[in-house]
Write a structure and sequence with these properties.
It is a single chain. By secondary structure, the protein is an alpha+beta fold. It has two domains: about 50 residues, Orthogonal Bundle (Arc Repressor Mutant, subunit A); about 80 residues, Lrp/AsnC effector binding domain/regulation of amino acid metabolism (RAM) domain (Alpha-Beta Plaits), CATH 3.30.70.920. Helices cover about 40% and strands about 20% of the residues. It contains six helices and four strands. A four-stranded antiparallel β-sheet has the order 2-3-1-4. Helix 2 crosses helix 3. The protein is elongated, with a radius of gyration of 20 Å.
Length: about 160
C-alpha cells in the first residue's frame, strides 16, 4: 500500500489516542474531515489500522496474577504448531501468544485470579495437550506496554520519527 506523510501522521496520532474524533484528527493533519475520513477508512480496509483498544485495570476485573508460560512442543511440525496456536488463543485467560525461536516454541501471556488458578490452567490447559512436551512458568511482577509501533517506512521517506 502506498502511504504518504499524512497517512503516517494519522497513524501516529491514532496510536497515541484512538478516541480522537474525525474532526480532531482532520484538524491535526490539515485535511477536510471528509478527506481525513476517507484516508482512515482506506487504512482500515488495507489492514494498516486494525481496530482500537481500551486499557483496563486488571485488578478491577479480578485478575490478581499474570504470568508467561513458555511452551516447548514435542515435535516441530506445522500441524502441532497450528494446533497449539489455536488452542492457546481459545483460552479466556490468554492475553497474547508469541511463536518464538529458541529453547521454547511459544511464550503465552496469561491473566488469572491467583496462584491456584495459574496452577490449574497450567495442568489442565497446557500439560494435557498432546503436542506439549514441557512448560515453564514465570510470574510477572510488573509490566508496561510500549506506546507506539515504530514506523521505519516513515523514516526511510525522510519524514523523521
Amino acid at each position: 500500500m502506498d502511504m504518504d506523510r499524512i497517512d503516517f501522521v494519522i497513524i501516529d496520532l491514532l496510536q497515541k489516542d484512538a478516541r480522537l474524533s474525525n474532526k480532531e484528527l482532520a484538524a491535526a493533519v490539515g485535511l477536510a474531515p471528509s478527506s481525513c475520513l476517507a484516508r482512515v477508512q482506506r487504512l482500515r480496509t488495507e489492514g494498516v489500522l486494525r481496530g482500537a483498544t481500551t486499557e483496563v485495570d486488571a485488578e478491577a476485573l479480578g485478575v490478581g496474577l499474570q504470568a508467561l508460560i513458555a511452551v516447548q512442543l514435542s515435535q516441530h511440525s506445522r500441524a502441532k504448531v497450528k494446533a497449539f496456536w489455536k488452542h492457546a488463543l481459545s483460552l479466556p485467560e490468554v492475553l497474547a501468544v508469541f511463536h518464538v525461536a529458541g529453547t521454547h516454541d511459544f511464550q503465552v501471556h496469561v491473566a488469572v485470579r491467583d496462584a491456584h488458578h495459574l496452577r490449574d490452567l497450567a495442568l489442565d490447559a497446557f500439560t494435557t495437550r498432546p503436542e506439549v512436551a514441557h512448560i515453564q512458568t514465570s510470574l510477572i511482577f510488573e509490566w508496561a506496554k510500549g506506546r507506539l509501533m515504530p514506523n521505519y517506512r516513515k523514516a526511510r521517506m525522510g519524514a523523521g520519527l
